[in-house]
Every structure is written in structure tokens, then in C-alpha cells.
Amino acid sequence: MTSIFGVPLPAILGQLMLGLVNGSFYALLSLGLAVIFGLLGVVNFAHGAFYMLGAFAAYVGLEFLGVNYWWALLLAPLAVGLLGILIERLFLRHLYQLDPLYGLLLTFGIALIAEGVMRGLFGASGKSYPVPKLLQGGVNLGFMMLPIYRAWVVAASIAVCATTWFLIERTRLGAVLRAATENARLVQAFGINVPLVVMTTYGAGVALAALAGVLAAPVVQVSPLMGSSLVIVVFAVVVIGGMGSILGAIVSGLVLGLIEGLTKVVYPEASNIVVFVIMAVVLMWRPTGLFGRD
Amino acid sequence: MLKTTATVCCTLLGLCSAMPAGAAGGQVVIGDIDDLSGVYADAAGQGAIEAANMAIADFGGTVLGKKIVLLSVDHQNKPDIGATKFREWADQNGLNMLLGGSNTGVSIAMAKVAAAKKVPFIAIGAGGASLTGADCTAYTVHYAYDTTALGNGTASAIVKQGGKSWFFVTADYAFGTQLQEAAARVVTANGGKVVGAVRAPLGTTDYSSFLLQAQGSGAQVLGLANAGTDFSNSLKAAEEFGITKTMKPAALLAFISDIHSLTLQTAQGLYLTTGWYWDLNAETRAFAKRYFAKMNREPTMDQAAYYSATLQYLNAVKAVGSTDPDLIMAHLKSTKINDMFTKEGYVRADGLMVHTMYVMQVKTPAESKYPWDYYKVIKVMSGEEADGTQPDPSCSLLKK
Q: What is the CATH number of the domain that holds B216?
């Protein structure tokens, strides 16, 4: 059997494949964070909580309202996005003039409240969400069995990332968004309702997190803590990519997923810190991140 | 931009803390330090506090004419928080006995405080057998189950059915490694072999990589030496990747709350070992019914053990007529335990409460006739069968 550094090739290929799946989640989550930070300057610590709420929204939809997975993909992000808009209107709006630290503390508080409420309602061990019928089963790739659902996650997440990137970097709408963050007053003078733009952007970033949550629901236990364990890694991903950089978030999400996958073959115990080691190295070498602007 | 990056990094480093306590004087103070918010909060958590309160109420609310008070706090799975809070209660709140919840790491830290402060510590949610071995103290009682019993139950049942080669996915801390050791010992003693193991960090959400390694090993049995959401997530992924088709999963520690949240569809056929099940007999069902009325779910073995331990402690206080820790410990170690939790249980010299354990198999959805009808009994193990006839020789109490 072919092997690299004493690790059989099929094992490496398998782990790379899984790394890609995880990387897709990282990319999708860090994308939402990057959009929010890049356009609003808010460090959204509640991102993990919105991801968790997205998954719970899908669960509640299926269990109590008869909303199937495909509708949940649309409705859960919409519902959680609206909640995000409400939070922006009621709380975040008042903090834009202040140091970003205040936004961070506020969103962290919101995350704790959301987790506490869901723990009260559903318990700490969470709930199971079934894989939708159409995506059950797996394909044998020769080196591993790839569940169809995971392949779908990769495809969906790359499609969403690409669309978001295109919207922000290549369309007129994106140009308005970017202009509004550069100089809100000037854009307002052109007759564009900047507060509305900012509010919608936050809602959209939150909806992206909720979408990741719906995608994750069938593969991990839907539990109140599912977001808090992920959000720390995702923040590291965003820091590595360069805070606010859309492309940086997508690329570093995928690449770090792959690196983490490889670490799991070589030295599994380090798999949950490798991202942070890379973060430390990147910060020393390029303090604004790989894709960040000085 | 840079400043914000720095702020985020600092925030990543340290978060969270604290809660208030109660008072002392003319009271018997029982404390509970447990995971109230994390991965183990469903196994004991708030339900365990409720169970302890039920025991206090059943006892009449007073002992030796003193009011019984229950304090509780969340240890957040951090040994330093557990130990500090225990010390604080012992020094300032007149703590008479501590009930300790999940997480072996935290319980080991708290056992050291128990020895230093001479406050009886009844460890319930924690599994690590070292609590009555290398980490034993004169004031520790290990009550509900331990890793040795879990290994002797689940692992031996599976090896005897032909599951000879094992691969472990282990939670990377004291509990996981002790559980893996206990199970591996049983596997090899019964003619099986361990072909590999991988240690996954506590709180891992994605187990697919570890499971792929397990599958690559060609072992027959997938030993899950973890608990709580770690267990649920690893089992779910094993099913998703088709690994349960080629390997037989073994739950080395699963609570009924885990099975409930996984649903029978996913968990069916699983072997597990437990010290208590709500549907064992009339007495367990009667307790479960009262508990259900308050919590709207069936009690886990930990929650039942909290009730039993609280009651046994209060009985001891009444019997010796004082809360003197040495008299209490002597009484606990010389009196048989007979209640809804167990019959003829006894506390061994090393502090382990030896009692009947059950090897269970999770029912299929078709076999389950009513809500929470989840287990069928595969084997009843006597306390000696589960934990051996001799106290753990590595316990320093035995070396005189």
C-alpha cells in the first residue's frame, strides 16, 4: 500500500476529504462573521449562538410544525435573521460609535442568554435531527465511504460562499454596502438609507450562521453548546484570514479544515489546537491576517 | 483593525465565572458541586439538585433538630472552580457533606479538599475508579458507578459474544483514559485484543476523522470511552459513515438522557452498563414517578444516586447523633445500604460503594412499548462481579 510518512495513502485521502467537509462549515461561519465585521465593524460573538439557533429552528420546525429539511434551509435562516435584525435595532445600533469591545461584550452576553434559554427548553444533551431521505446513504470512494449528506454540505457551502463573495465584491449592491461602511454620510447624501443597509447586512450575516446550523443539524447532535465549541475556532479562522476579508474567510476556512484533518492523522491530540498555533504564527508574521489590509 | 484583532484574541483566552452561596449556624449544610450547564448537565445537573431536595423533604427537612440546607454551584468542568468552592463552603458556610457531580478531573481535585478539610465527599457523577484507588481519601465515597464496573459490564458482555478485537475512541482526560484502561483490561483478560485507540479532545463535535481511523483498523468493536454529548456525537457519526454496519458500537458510559436525545432509532441494540434504571421494579418506578412529576423526564442513575446518597447521609447523621466526619464515615462504612437505589450495597474500605450493576441493551423502536421504555436487562452483576472482591490495593488507606 502506498504511504506518506508511514501513513497509508487512503487514510490521508479520507482525512483530507473530511477536512474539506469541516472546512466548509468553517468557511460558511467565518463568512458571516467577516461580512458583519467588514461592513459593520461589529465583532459578533453571538455568531455561534445564531448557528445553534438555526439548528434548533430546523428541529422545532420538523418536530412541531411539519416543516421539512428543504423548507428549513430557507425558513430557519429567515427566522433567525429576523431575530438578528431585531437585536441590531434594539441593542447593537447604539454601540456603533463606541469601541468594538462593547459590541463584542454585548453579543457575548446575547450568546450566553441564548444558550441558557435553549438549555432550559431542550436540556444540555440536545436533540437528534434525521438526515433527509433524499440525501441518505453514501458513496464508496475507494478510500472511504462518503455519506451523500456530507458531499451535499460541501457543495452547498461552496455555492453559498461564492454567491456571497460575488454579491459583495462584484455587484452594485455590494458596492453600496462597501461604500456605506467607508463613508456613511456621503452615501446617505446620495439618497441611500444607510441604517437600513446596515440592519439588513447584520440580518444577512446572522442568516448565514443559521444556514450553517441547519446544514449541521443532521450530522451533529443539535445541542445548546454546539455553537460555543465552534465559534472559538471560527474566530481564529477569521483572524487568520484577516478580519473583515470575505475571500480570506472563505479560503482560510477551507484550508484550515484540511490542515486540521491532516493533524488528526499525524497527531490527533493536537487537532483542536492546531488552528490556534497557526493563528499565533500568522499574527506574528502578518498581524492583519493573510488577506487583511494594513 | 489590529486593535480589534487583539481584542478578539484576548477574549478567546479567558471567559466566564461565579454565583452566590448560603449561610451556616444551627444547620446541617449539604453542598452540591456539579456540571449545571455543560456537556454533562443532563446526567445529573438540575435534576440531581431536585433529587437531593426530594430526599431532604422525605427526611422531614430537619435532622437532630437542625434545619437541612442544600447549597449548589456549577463547576463548569473546571477542577479549580470545584476545589475553590468546596474549600470556601467548608471554611465559611459550615459545610457538613459534599455531593459531587460529573467530571472525574473535578472530583479528583475535590477529593483532595475533602481530605484536607475533613468533610465527607460523596462522588456521584464522576466515573474514574482512581477516586477509590490512587486518589482515594478517608472522606471519599464513590457512589453510583465507576470505570471498573463499566468495563466489567459492557466489555465482558461483548467479548463473550464474540467481539474480540477492539478499537477505542477515548475522551482525552482522566475519565476517558481510565475507562479505556478498565475496558481494555477486561477485553484482554477474556481473550480479546485491543488493536488501537485514538484520544479525542473533550467537547469534540466532529468525530468523523477518528471514526475513519477506527474503521481502518479492521477491529470488530468500536469502544466509545466517552460520555454526554461526546458520546452522542461519536455514535451519530459512526452511524452516518456506515461504520456501525461493520463494527459493533459499545457505549462504555451512556445515561438514559443520552439515549432519549439520540432516540431509539439511532441507539437501538447498543450495550451499556448502568447502576440503576427507572423501570427495574416497583420501588424504582415509584421514585421515578415522583421525580417525573417535578422534572418531566425520567431520572438517570446519577439523579437516583443523589437521592439515595443524601438519604443515607442523613440516616447516618441521625444514627450517630452528630455530623462529626469520622463518626459519619465509620457509620457509612459499616452499614448496609437498602433503598430504592440498591439492595445490600456497602461502602468498602477504599470508599467504593459496592452494589448491583446492570448490563443493558437498548430496545428497538418496535420493542419499546411506552415512553422511556428504553432498556432490556441482559445481565445482573453483583457488586463483587462488577468491582471485584478486594479493595483497590493502590489506595493508600489500605497501606498501614
A: 3.40.50.2300
